[in-house]
């Protein structure tokens, strides 16, 4: 079903030809990414930056009639090499959410092995046209399963580190794995962020919750027909909407697992079929 209110917020992770197996399901090739961007440009959608969307969500000026946003999570090195140049070439704005303790060099990598951006490279690209940089936690942990003190530290310290390194305000956050609840969202607001990205595999809208923005996760098997449907405002439902029983049950199960096992292996989380539906 097509919705005129739908705002597709596309979520990418990696853009490369030879991804490590654990991130391969969430990777597109550079050539495929270019074709995706060409479809965005040809769709009639108006690509907007995060600042414009933030202003609209907080009651400011309205959005173009058919808007679209592009986002990336984690901070892989291929963003600077393969993704950003194609975005700049097409004059398409993008927001990159960075897991601060995963950037090189770090003595304790917090994601499975993959080439990550370095702090030096992040500073180099920070002024690229159309690029906004946001926070994605320090260690990519499931915030809604952490003790309250650890959860607040993950959120606040990632912003502080980015602002210190980049010497500019950082006002948007993306929940690792998309996982959040009311307490996590309150902590994000308390830390001074004006928006936060979830996943939910749904369209966003002008009426969406600024601290739980719905995104559509682009996977390796996201074909042109599905992308075109998203850009047409068709397919998934449109936020805002309440969490369903599968999301609530999955959250409860993860909390039980966290208490029993401690922090889960991120490779398992990225491969979990329910993870993309977390609220």
Automatic annotation (TrEMBL):
Gene3D superfamilies: Glycoside hydrolase/deacetylase (3.20.20.370). Residues 260-279 are annotated as: Disordered. Transmembrane segments: none annotated. Keywords: Signal. InterPro entries: Glyco_hydro/deAcase_b/a-brl, NODB_dom, Polysacch_Deacetylase. One of its GO terms (molecular function) is hydrolase activity, acting on carbon-nitrogen (but not peptide) bonds. Signal peptide: none annotated. Its main location: secreted. It comes from the Bacteria. Coiled coil: none annotated. Residues 66-279 form the NodB homology domain. GO terms for cellular component: extracellular region. Residues 263-272 have a biased composition (Basic and acidic residues). This is NodB homology domain-containing protein.
């Amino acid at each position: 079903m097509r919705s005129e209110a739908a705002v597709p917020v596309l979520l990418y992770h990696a853009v490369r030809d030879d991804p490590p197996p654990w991130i391969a399901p969430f990777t597109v090739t550079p050539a495929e990414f270019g074709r995706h961007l060409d479809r965005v440009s040809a769709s009639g959608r108006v690509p907007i930056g995060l600042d414009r969307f933030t202003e609209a969500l907080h009651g400011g000026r309205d959005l173009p009639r058919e808007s679209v946003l592009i986002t990336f999570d984690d901070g892989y090195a291929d963003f600077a090499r393969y993704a950003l140049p194609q975005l700049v070439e097409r004059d398409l704005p993008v927001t990159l959410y960075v897991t601060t303790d995963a950037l090189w060099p770090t003595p304790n990598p917090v994601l499975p092995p993959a080439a990550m951006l370095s702090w030096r490279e992040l500073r180099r690209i920070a002024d690229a046209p159309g690029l906004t940089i946001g926070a994605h936690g320090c260690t990519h942990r499931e915030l809604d399963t952490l003790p309250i003190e650890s959860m607040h530290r993950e959120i606040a310290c990632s912003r502080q580190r980015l602002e210190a390194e980049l010497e500019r305000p950082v006002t948007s956050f993306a929940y690792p794995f998309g996982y959040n609840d009311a307490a996590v969202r309150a902590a994000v607001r308390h830390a001074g962020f004006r928006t936060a990205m979830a996943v939910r595999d749904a369209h966003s809208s002008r009426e969406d919750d600024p601290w739980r923005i719905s995104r559509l996760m682009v996977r390796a098997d996201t074909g042109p027909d599905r992308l075109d449907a998203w850009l047409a405002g068709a397919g998934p439902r449109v936020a805002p909407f309440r969490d369903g029983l599968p999301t609530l049950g999955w959250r409860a199960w993860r909390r039980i697992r966290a208490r029993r096992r401690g922090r889960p292996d991120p490779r398992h989380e990225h491969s979990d079929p329910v993870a993309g539906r977390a609220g």
